[in-house]
């Protein structure tokens, strides 16, 4: 029980991860639609539609500017929603957690498995989007393959934040609050569709200090543009550090919810 | 996984050969919530290879006790050891050797019957091949082989229950914990499950069960306790409890004023429950004769006393929820 429950995590968490992976593969056709369709829709509507009105952003064509943001958004959505609505369904409606806790696995194993799976789903989506974006000519290979390993810590970050909300939500409907009040504003204001640099300076600090997606977009854009500055070091440390914090918080909130 | 489910189970209670060892022992076991004491200092011991029952009205503390035994709900007081290990310290080791049949069906709806078993095996760290072989065996054992590849939602209530029992056996448990194993099933399905549980017992699998079906407890349990308000009221074999608390026979009739005055005249004690008059007795013929002859009472039933009579006598007839 020591060290905030971290010592209760075992290899068994991989069996939980694998259960979710197997369920994902069983319905792969429907699961593989979003990463292929979403970038196409966004690129057509925003990249080429809105983009037609914009010459370029700091010398970069608009579709190229938003491409790394689209990958970041997809990682955020898939990891966050997997560990909120989907985890909640498994926990509350399907009683899957109750069934697993009757085996040698601990609650910490279950939560860790859920977070790892949420991150994996985000990473799979990032990986599937890369060929689509490449075909549109908005990212370069092989440098953009680096988006895949970067999706892992980003996925753990959004999955852990999701698990925290799942652990405290009184009902599945209440998960709409973080979805609309936290995820949607981040989707719009994290340097996704316009550069953070046009915001007032105080808001720029706010974005890089407090918004997970702003840091992920900044990192991913540095990769696709192949322009590496000290800022990305900050982004990486921020993502890993905050992911670790929310992971531990999520673990303990879930213990509080489930151990009665 | 070991082929035989029987292993020495305790490192604390090594008694002389021939005597049974305690699989579960509880002393002053307690579960307090801020506004309620669900289990109030109970003590009991479950011995190897027996079927031990927990009976009681809703809210008596049965399920809470089960949850403490299988290490998912921490006790708040007292001592509880399973296989000689402390539930608070050795949860993983204890759970490796348990099979759990929960009250609520929590089969995994994303998978088929067969996959439910193999995926469950993975939680125990059973190698894939072994789990698959075991899963086929268990489907056959619970007569579900035909439903091997069917999704959970397409199974009937009885099939789901059988599959849950099969799932609980995937790790060859030495102790099976059954919370209402036949809840909501038709007589055919119940009889099949009873047969399987007796078969498992014959193979040496210790079982602890809760049930609301007193005929089930009477048929299956070697020993049982009746609980109410978090406490154990009585403990013993079904026969002993019936003998001690309900006599051997029960006479039932309608509580007409004639019957009542007739029984009072003959100095026979009786109870009235709504539209039912009951007499507990060891000499049913004499009393039935009195009722039918002296009082000209026409509808008199004589039946064997059952555990249900004991249960209602001890826990009352007031509705609990």
Automatic annotation (TrEMBL), chain A:
The keyword Oxidoreductase does not apply. The chain crosses the membrane at residues 36-54, 60-81, 122-139, 145-168, 175-196, 231-254. One of its GO terms (molecular function) is ABC-type transporter activity. One of its GO terms (cellular component) is ATP-binding cassette (ABC) transporter complex. It comes from the Archaea. It is found in: Membrane. Keywords: Membrane, Transmembrane, Transmembrane helix. It is a multi-pass membrane protein. Residues 30-257 form the ABC transmembrane type-2 domain. InterPro entries: ABC2_TM (IPR013525), ABC2_TM_bact-type (IPR047817), ABC_2_transport (IPR000412), Nod_factor_ABC_transporter (IPR051784). Its main location: membrane. PROSITE patterns: ABC_TM2. Signal peptide: none annotated. PANTHER family: NODULATION PROTEIN J. This is ABC transporter permease. It comes from Methanocalculus chunghsingensis.
């Amino acid at each position: 029980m020591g060290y905030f429950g971290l010592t209760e995590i075992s290899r068994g968490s991989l069996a939980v991860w694998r259960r979710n992976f197997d369920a994902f593969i069983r319905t792969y056709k429907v699961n593989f639609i979003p990463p292929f369709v979403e970038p196409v829709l966004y690129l057509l509507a925003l990249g080429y539609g809105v983009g037609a009105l914009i010459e370029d952003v700091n010398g970069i064509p608009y579709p190229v500017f938003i491409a790394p943001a689209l990958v970041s958004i997809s990682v955020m959505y898939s990891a966050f929603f997997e560990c909120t609505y989907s985890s909640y369904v498994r926990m509350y409606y399907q009683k899957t957690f109750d069934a697993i806790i009757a085996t040698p696995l601990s609650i910490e194993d279950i939560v860790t498995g859920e977070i790892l799976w949420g991150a994996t789903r985000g990473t799979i989506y990032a990986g599937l989007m890369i060929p689509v974006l490449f075909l549109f000519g908005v990212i370069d290979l092989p440098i953009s393959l680096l988006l895949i390993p970067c999706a892992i810590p980003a996925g753990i970050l959004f999955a852990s934040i999701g698990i925290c909300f799942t652990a405290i939500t009184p009902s599945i409907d209440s998960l709409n609050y973080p979805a609309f009040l936290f995820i949607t504003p981040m989707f719009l204001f994290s340097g996704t569709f316009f550069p953070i640099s046009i915001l007032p300076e105080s808001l720029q600090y706010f974005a890089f200090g407090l918004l997970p997606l702003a840091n992920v977009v900044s990192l991913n854009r540095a990769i696709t543009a192949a322009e590496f500055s000290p800022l990305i070091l900050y982004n990486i440390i921020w993502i890993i550090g905050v992911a670790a914090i929310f992971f531990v918080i999520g673990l303990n909130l879930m213990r509080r919810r489930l151990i009665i | 996984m070991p082929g035989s489910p029987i292993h020495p189970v305790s490192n604390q209670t090594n008694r002389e050969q021939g005597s049974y060892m305690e699989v579960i022992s509880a002393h002053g076991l307690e579960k307090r919530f801020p506004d309620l004491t669900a289990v109030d200092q109970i003590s009991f011991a479950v011995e190897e290879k027996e079927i031990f029952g927990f009976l009681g009205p809703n809210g008596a503390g049965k399920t809470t006790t089960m949850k403490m035994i299988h290490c998912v709900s921490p006790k708040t007081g007292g001592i509880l050891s399973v296989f000689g290990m402390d539930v608070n310290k050795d949860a993983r080791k204890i759970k490796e050797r348990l099979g759990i049949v929960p009250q609520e069906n929590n089969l995994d709806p994303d998978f088929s019957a067969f996959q439910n078993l193999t995926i469950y095996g993975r939680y125990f760290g059973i190698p894939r091949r072994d789990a698959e072989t075991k899963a086929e065996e268990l489907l056959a054992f619970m007569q579900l082989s035909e439903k091997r590849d069917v999704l959970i939602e397409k199974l009937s209530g009885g099939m789901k229950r059988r599959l849950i029992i099969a799932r609980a056996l995937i790790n060859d448990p030495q102790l099976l914990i059954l919370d209402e194993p036949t809840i909501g099933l038709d007589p055919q399905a119940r009889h099949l499950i009873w047969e399987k549980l007796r078969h498992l017992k014959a193979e040496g699998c210790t079982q602890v069960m809760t049930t609301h079906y007193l005929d089930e407890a009477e048929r299956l349990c070697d020993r049982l306790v009746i609980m109410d308000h978090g406490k154990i009221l009585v403990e013993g074999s079904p026969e002993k409890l019936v003998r001690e608390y309900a006599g051997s026979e029960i006479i039932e009739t309608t509580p007409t004023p004639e019957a009542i005055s007739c029984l009072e005249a003959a100095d026979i004690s009786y109870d009235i429950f709504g539209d039912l008059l009951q007499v507990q007795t060891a000499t049913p013929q004499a009393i039935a004769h009195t009722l039918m002859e002296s009082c000209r009472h026409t509808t008199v039933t004589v039946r064997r006393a059952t555990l249900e009579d004991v249960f209602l006598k001890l826990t009352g007839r007031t509705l609990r929820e």
